[in-house]
Amino acid sequence: MQDIKGVVFDVDGVLIDSLEPHLRLCRDKNIEYSLGLTIPSVEEFKALVRSGVKVSPMKFFFLSVGFPEYYADLATEYYNEFFMQEYEPEPFEGLDNVFASLKSSGIGIGLVTSNVKGNIYKPLANYLHYFRSNCILAKEDYSGDSKANAILIVAARLGVRPSETLYIGDQISDKVAADEAGVKFAGVNYGWGLSGEEMDFPVYESVYEIAKSITSEAPLCS
After folding, report:
1. Strand partners, 137
2. 3-state SS class at 46
3. Which residue, 141, 213, 168, is CA-closest to 9?
4. pLDDT, position 217
5. pLDDT greater at residue 221 or residue 17
6. Which residues make Cβ contacts (< 8 Å) with residue 203, sequence separation at least 6?
């Protein structure tokens, strides 16, 4: 992939297979709070995301599946404290391959996520050695700022220009953040919201495709 010197990853749906655990939490809280909701399936939720419904930060996830605001706030408090203990998601297979390939090609890597640190550090524990600590920005690291600015902060810390930076996400909102930051964007269709039919940016079908594409000479949409 041409002129890429830094890659910044979203986490949920890109590096961590977390959608089903999030929906399972919603089902459990729906019962606990006696809300009487019908929680969508994985595919139904992905269609909801593709329609443009906001699902992050986590309060919006609960709102998107029908939680009233009071219960969305209550569930978010529980989520921030207990999600990793009760619903820990697994990393996608192949992350070692991706990170090692990028590093060996001299490409810097970072993370920018709307999730909190406690929900990303544990499932990614075996891979954090690939990252400098100041190149991992979670929700609390840029609270009140935009994801676009967080991407630019990580790019600067990697020592690369925006035009040399690729952000990889799984929602159209990630593409919007990349555009606002002036960086290139690629999506994945195995995550939360992209179908793979989008025409204006590359979409990867597996983790293994990421490093192969970035370290090749394939053209990239900016």
Report:
1. 112
2. helix
3. 168
4. 42
5. 17
6. 186, 187, 188, 189, 194, 196
**Tens digits of residue pLDDT in 186-207:** 999 999 988 777 668 899 999 9
- Report the alpha-carbon distance of residue 44 to residue 1 in Å, rounded: 33
Helix (H) or strand (E) holding 79: helix 69-87
Sequence ranges of the domains in the chain: 6-16+90-214, 19-87
DSSP string, 135-169: GEE-GGGSTTS-HHHHHHHHHHHHT--GGGEEEEE
What is the model's pTM?
Answer: 0.87
For residues 148 and 140, give the distance between their C-alpha atoms in angstroms, rounded to a whole number: 15
First to last CA, the chain: 12
Residue 177 has, within 13 A of its CA and on its CB side, a CA count of: 28
**CA distances for 30 relative to 25, 37, 62, 153, angstroms:** 8, 6, 10, 38
pLDDT digits (tens, 9 = 90+) for 66-85: 999 999 999 999 999 999 99
- Residues of the chain with pLDDT > 70, as a percent, come to 95
Cα angle at 42 between 66 and 99, to 5 degrees?
120
What dotted CATH number matches 6-16+90-214? 3.40.50.1000
CA angle in degrees (0–180, nearest 5) for 50-4-181: 50
